[in-house]
Amino acid sequence: MRSLLLGVLLLSAAAAASAEVTVIDFHQREVTLEQPAQRIIALAPHIVENVFSAGAGAKLVGVASYSNYPQGADQIPVVGDYQAWSLEAIVALRPDLILMWASGNGLQKLESLTRLGIPVYVSELRELSDIPASIRSIGKLAGTIPVSAAEADRLEREIVRLGEQYRQRPTVEVFYQVWNAPLQTINGEHMISRVLELCGAHNAFADAVSLAPKINVESVLHRNPDAIVASGMGAARPEWLDEWSGYPALRAVQRESLFWVDPDYLQRPTARMFIGAARLCRQLDSSRQ
């Protein structure tokens, strides 16, 4: 009986490994593989990270530059950066699936990729729920559904948990500072605004027209946010965040609400974004005090 059961399990695994899979990508395209992908190229660092979260990191054969997480991602061959890559390098790696980023890579480049005869999955994450949805789709395409489904479920529970804890608390008006020179922020369409909403906060520049507008100090003073959250370029707290202390009339200064979260935990739409969201929610909650 034990050998019979083992045989059935092996046959089921073999069937799953060879079964055709179909998903709908974020450009509403049907992406079909004759069997789960074994050689994957990801054309953005956040997509690389999501492939690992889906349990398919070992199947990556090519990545975009700056793919530095998780451990081992920086050892995978680089085919270019997120804006330009070598088609020759892609072909030489013999991928059976390419994962691209619509707004970052540019949808105009989709045609050149599809002409290679390789299935292309288009990712464009705008809502927090898109992160677990993307991980779930990648797992289906890669044949790693048990891992991807478990991770997607975990992230969906975290969205609910944070929302229940913070979303109904008094609103905190937030200026999210991407950079200092030029002074830059994000508008209400950016996913970071969804994080702010999860924390019961509001983006002070949600009404800006462009996704990442350049602004001036006077506009920040005029909107007078309750808190300022800075990103920067690395793991260290940006020194320029403290320059706001020179404006004592700002509510953010009066409340001692000059905050910082490592940009990799807020500016990459990956599982780590929920770590950053939890940290940010706690910081903004202190501003309410």
What this model shows, in words?
The chain has helices spanning 2-18, 45-53, 87-92, 102-105, 110-114, 130-142, 145-166, 191-198, 217-223, 251-254, 273-288; strands at 21-24, 30-33, 40-42, 60-64, 78-80, 97-101, 120-123, 172-177, 179-180, 183-184, 201-203, 227-230, 258-260. With 289 residues, it is of the alpha/beta class. The chain folds into two domains: 17-155, Nitrogenase molybdenum iron protein domain (Rossmann fold, 3-Layer(aba) Sandwich); 167-288, 3-Layer(aba) Sandwich (Rossmann fold). Strands 5-4-3-6-7 form a five-stranded parallel beta sheet. It has a four-stranded parallel beta sheet with strand order 11-8-12-13. Helix 7 packs parallel to helix 11. It starts with a helix and ends with a helix.
Distance between the termini: 65 Å
Classify the fold: give the CATH topology of the largest domain: Rossmann fold
CATH architecture of the largest domain: 3-Layer(aba) Sandwich
Shape: elongated
In the residues, how many domains can be counted?
2
What kind of oligomer do you see?
single chain
Specify the number of helices: 11
Q: What strand line-up does the widest sheet have? A: 5-4-3-6-7
How many beta-strand runs? 13
What's the CATH C level of the largest domain?
Alpha Beta
Could you report the average pLDDT, rounded to the nearest whole number? 93
Largest sheet: 5 strands, parallel
Percentage of residues in DSSP E strands: 15-25%
Poorly predicted regions are 4-15
- Helix-strand makeup class: alpha/beta
Radius of gyration: 21 Å
- What is the CATH superfamily of the largest domain? Nitrogenase molybdenum iron protein domain
Provide the succession of SSEs: HEEEHEEHEHHEHHEEEHEHEHEH
Share of helix, binned: 25-40%
Keywords: Signal
Protein name: Cobalamin-binding protein
InterPro entries: ABC_Transporter_SBP, ABC_transptr_periplasmic_BD, Vit_B12_bind_prot
Signal peptide: 1-19
